[in-house]
Amino acid sequence: MTAQLAAHSTSLAAYSTSTGEAFQFWVLGTVAVIGALCTVFMKKSVHSALCLAGTMIILAVFYLANGAYFLGIVQVVVYTGAIMMLFLFVVMLVGVTAADSLTETIKGQRWLALLCGLGFGILLCAGIGNASLNEFNGLAQANAGGNVEGLATLIFTKYVFAFEITGALLITAAVGAMVLTHRERTERAKTQREMAEERVRKNVQLPPLPAPGVYARHNAVDIPGLLPDGTPSELTVIKTLRDRGQIRDVSDEALKDLKALEQRSGERLGRGDRAEEAAK
Amino acid sequence: MENLIALLVAAPLLGAAVLLCGGRRLDAVGHWIGTALASASFVIGAILFADMLGKDEEHRAVGQHLFSWIPVEGFQADIGFQLDQLSMTFVLLITGVGSLIHVYSIGYMEHDERRRRFFGYLNLFLAAMLLLVLADNYLLLYVGWEGVGLASYLLIGFWQHKPSAATAAKKAFLVNRVGDMGLSIAIMLMFTTFGTFAFGPVLEATGETGEGKLTAIGLMLLLAACGKSAQVPLQSWLGDAMEGPTPVSALIHAATMVTAGVYLIVRSGEIFNAAPDAQLVTTVVGAVTLLFGAIVGCAKDDIKKALAGSTMSQIGYMILAAGLGPIGYVFAIMHLVTHGFFKAGLFLGAGSVMHGMNDEVDMRKYGGLRKYMPVTFVTFGLGYLAIIGFPGLSGFFSKDKIIEAAFAKGGTEGWILGGVALLGAAITAFYMTRVMLMTFFGEERWRNQPTPSPAESDVEPAAEHRGTHAEPHPHESPKSMTIPMIVLAFGSVFAGGFFGIGDRFLHWLEPVTEHAHGHSPLSATTVTLSTMVVLVIGVGLAYLQYGRRPVPVVAPRGSLLTRAARRDLLQDDFNHVVLVRGGEHLTRSLVYVDHTLVDGVVNGTAASMGGLSGRLRKLQNGYARSYAVSMFGGAAILIAATLLMRAV
Amino acid sequence: MNPVNYLYLAALLFTIGATGVLIRRNAIVVFMCIELMLNACNLAFVTFSRMHGNLDGQIIAFFTMVVAAAEVVVGLAIIVSLFRSRHSASVDDASLMKL
Q1: What is the pTM of this model?
Q2: What are the recorded Gene Ontology BP terms (chain C) (predicted)?
Q3: Is CATH 1.10.287.3510 the classification given to domain C1-86?
Q4: Minimal CB count within 10 Å: which of A48, A228, B16, B107?
Q5: Are B313 and B292 in contact (CB under 8 A)?
Q6: Which among C22, C23, C97 is the nearest to B622, CB-wise?
Q7: Using CA atoms, how far apart are residues B537 and B371, in angstroms rounded to an integer?
Q8: Chain segment B477-504, per-residue pLDDT in tens
Q9: Across the interface, do A106 and B623 touch by the CB < 8 Å criterion?
Q10: Domain chopping of chain C, boundaries
């Protein structure tokens, strides 16, 4: 046992990497873990996506540090650049501002998940600690002719079948995505004239719908307009946002603002003094 | 020449297949096909017999191996035939009597619309019976054994529209099943003891086997013989089996099938020789049955049932002789053959009488028939003389030898067995004389009969298409029926003398069954004389009872013994009380156990499984995340297991 | 520093991703967590490649990326069509396998 430990410590010494890499690992590694945790625990999916993108870039750096130059670049270009952008597109489609509730609905699910995660992580670490990883050759030899050339040699010789099959898989995936998302129109889209005529025939809302609120300090389309009594009218927000529940109710704020405005304008016009006098 | 052996079985089997599968098209010629194939079998048998006679005694036994039936490592079952003198005797008896009875049936079953089927069954019986006696191993013998059981079942219940016939068939089948169980157990025991079923190796190995095992095998074989040969305690089916058509009673339930048990015991002689206890039980069974059957035969008014009691009793003689060991085997077979002739003749005679009397079976409604049916009277009378052992006729030679052998058993046993056999001879003389007198002599009690009540016509509906129930007009039967009777009567008269004089049969059979001369305490002459004396006493008593006095048409109440004997000495009551009632009680308690214990366990398991499932069901909440947790936990457990395995 | 630390980091990221899959209900976030798990595996592969001194590990990581790209395309398409039909991206809403 002691002999093993001794051997282990010597191997540690032999396989150590540079101090610079160690520093980089500990700093970036911490950031990567925080990014991963944020991915899981951020309420808004768009934030999650950004955190994940950050983690992936750090992983790209680690790839480079590990001598996988090609993969490091691909990680940035394909993963962070393409795949995460695809995620962001879908997040936009689903609703960028929609925040998830993090309260758990399945009884015991959260605790079970955390317990399993903890146990799994500990066991995994124990497994790595147990494994006899006393081999550390470095990639100096393998990368001698260039990392990309080395990979290409392997891909087009040893792994050529797997490579071809992944090509087929990608084609299939592309077709599958189209099949899943494509909706065939069974009827011609209505022209504007037809829609207008239909509205007249129905005689429900003849004039155009009221415009949304006009407090144009930010995206104003999701703010309902106020009725004369100050209550917001959901009718003024477009249907898509209404369906998503992404209506920002600012009526209280607006009424408060209105009141303040009135007061200020009153003061300026001297109405307030007159009013005070009248009170006296 | 050996290749002909398979044909012996194949001919009637082909007949059965053709007749049973051929359908109505063969109705017109079916009986001829059946008779032709049965006779063909007899001709083949005769050719083989002639061939056998041409050989030395040593080389007479021949065999034919057809194919391997079940070739498994350590379990070899072959389809093979063995034709030695013993089998030859049976082949000739079976095919000979069988062919005669086929001829007889042509006339007897003339008006039955299912005659083709009847002949199909008869051919099936012949094939199965020949298979039984020709098999060279116990397993194939068992096939034939079951085959004759099936044919017997089908033929007893041939008039299945009669509830009594259907019940009788079922009864015969069930009782036989008990015996068959014995045979199958015996075969299993043989396999575990000797590792084979073939006659040769099994019988050779008896010398090196423990007596206990041999006794067990012997007793099981005896049980089988009791079932098939209607011996006490499995005798109850034979009387009811008379519900079948009379040719069936003559062929199956008198001449051939019921003697299969005797064949089995004689064939397995070496086993019994080495197991004296089994032999003793065999002699006791034979002795008890011979008295039992004789007493039952005295009380029955139904002519066929009286003859059935007689059959039982005569087979009792054979079983007794077979139980005596080497001193009796040959005489058992000899009596079997002569009995085959005269009992078949008697049954055919009874059938002829019934044929002429509108299927009336009650002897109290016969009387004085000798004038109307002279041929039947003469042949029946010769059979009668043969069975009672009238000097010079068949029964005299064979039965005398058995009585002699019984005395030769020696010691107290010998005296008891010999005494029983003598007593049986007296009773035989009594009841056969009674049958003879009531049927053919005396006043004509069938005249001026009241029309039978509907209940009675239910019993014999076959009569419905034979004519009315008005006063019968006794008449002689057609030639097809009388000729077989005449042939059989010849056999009854001369077979015994042919076999017995000069010990011809003994020499013929000795190479197979081995024979030992017993030392009788009485000389042969004494035995013969005493047999004559009891014979005269029996006949005389019967004459006093039934010849001098008129026979009442309605049976008198009779003594306690008579009444018991009329009810087959209470055998059915015994079976009912012990087996049926006992079975019912056992069933009821089993049902109770089933309801409470078994169902309780089953339902309890089901309920607990239901409860458990109800709880487990909650795990199936349909949320993919929930399932994912299980997967993740499972993965964690797998890692833990892997680590543990590595650590160990 | 021992390069085994990269493996510990990969294990940690994998576990975080797996836990995220179990905890989050938003299908998109769940999907992101799966990507995180795949990336953790890739890191392990790359590290192994370095330790063994050959490029096969990198090849596997490369194939993982390709397959992940295909998977993302299909998965997001499924999420989009699910959202269209149910107006929700919650994985709990698609609990049709319940009894």
Answers
A1: 0.61
A2: ATP synthesis coupled electron transport
A3: yes
A4: A228
A5: yes
A6: C97
A7: 27
A8: 888 888 999 999 988 888 888 888 878 8
A9: yes
A10: 1-86
